[in-house]
Design goal:
The protein has an eight-stranded antiparallel barrel with strand order 1-3-4-5-6-7-8-9. It is 20% helix and 39% strand. It is built from three helices and nine strands. By secondary structure, the chain is an alpha+beta fold. β3 and β4 form a beta hairpin.
Length: 160
Amino acid sequence: MKTLFKLIACLMLMISVSSCSDEDETIEIPALEINYVNLDGVWKLKEWNNAPIAEGLYCYIELERKGRTFKIYQKFDSMYARCITGEFSLETDENSVTTISGCYDYGMGEWNNTYIISDLLETGSMVWTVEGDETDVSIYERCDEVPADVIAEAKSYDEE
């Protein structure tokens, strides 16, 4: 009889534990502080204005924290691949909004836009929104390196 009561008690415990659902729980992905250290590395443009990047087009941005320099490998606004270099800077205002802006090498001027960086997540993604235009949104994902074929393609056009 004692065994039967223990068995019933165990079954009741199992039922009460199994009835708890994880569906109501939301998983929150921690955000990283937006700074030079956390931006350091290679980022690939994954989505622009709620649309994936078309096949055959790409934009990789390599941010280097120590020198605050960038290299952009892109085949996005031209039919030819190219590598663009320069310096970038971050600014954080009194509302903790961080922006990134840049200046191209060889006297080519400043970036056309300043971008608000948001949602820098531990999962390796970040969002850039053009300051003053909330509809112009770019989503980047962290990657290990710029693919060798992309670098080679950009160099082949630079040599011509």
